Amino acid sequence: MDKQQEINRIYSERNELAIALAHTALAAGWRAGRGVDLKGTDGWDTVVYVDLPNGTQVSWHMAPTDANLAKNLPPYDKEWDGTSLGRTPGWSASLGILQSIAQPNRYSTEEVLQYLADTGGQLSSHTVEGITRWGVYWPANGETQNHWYPSAYAAVEAAIEAERQGTRT
């Protein structure tokens, strides 16, 4: 494999990781999508964007041969923020929140549904600037969690843990 083929292979691997991060971000309720850089050169005009929970934007231009990887992402509805954080070593430290999302669920789906049924809890969500957060509320007594979580599972798991510790809200 010559040097250019090796560079192309590395870019393809990076592009696949950027696409995987964008899909994971969308599943977590974050803003992510694809855009077009009208100033892109040599066909490098497809851009994948992800807004991290701390408000930081990361983005990657896709090689022309990999641009089709972004076709299933929604259009990104913001402008590029002018930074190149996705190319800065260490940027992934901003993903600390992914640890809580990526951890295996502590409770089975059945346990989560049973908890909601037993306590009369219901899931609620709110979306601000394309980022959805989840919580549990109990309509019978008007009680609501004091925190919003990146996924419905995380919200219910936190409610179960708080209930067990006697600090539900």
Describe the structure.
The protein is of the alpha+beta class and 169 residues long. The protein folds into two domains: 3-97, no CATH class; 104-165. The protein has four helices and six strands; from the N terminus they run H-E-E-E-H-H-E-E-E-H. Strands 1-2-3 form a three-stranded antiparallel beta sheet, with helices on one face. A three-stranded antiparallel beta sheet has the order 4-5-6, covered by helices on one side. A hairpin with a 4-residue loop joins strand 5 (131-138) and strand 6. The chain is elongated, with a radius of gyration of 20 Å. The mean pLDDT is 82.
Concise structural overview:
By secondary structure, this protein is α+β, with helices and mostly antiparallel strands. The chain is 33% helix and 20% strand. The termini are far apart.
Classification by helices and strands: alpha+beta
Encode the helix/strand succession as letters.
Answer: HEEEHHEEEH
Low-confidence segments: none
DSSP strand (E) fraction?
A: 15-25%
Mean pLDDT: 82
Described by the principal axes of the CA atoms, the overall outline is elongated
Cα radius of gyration in angstroms: 20 Å
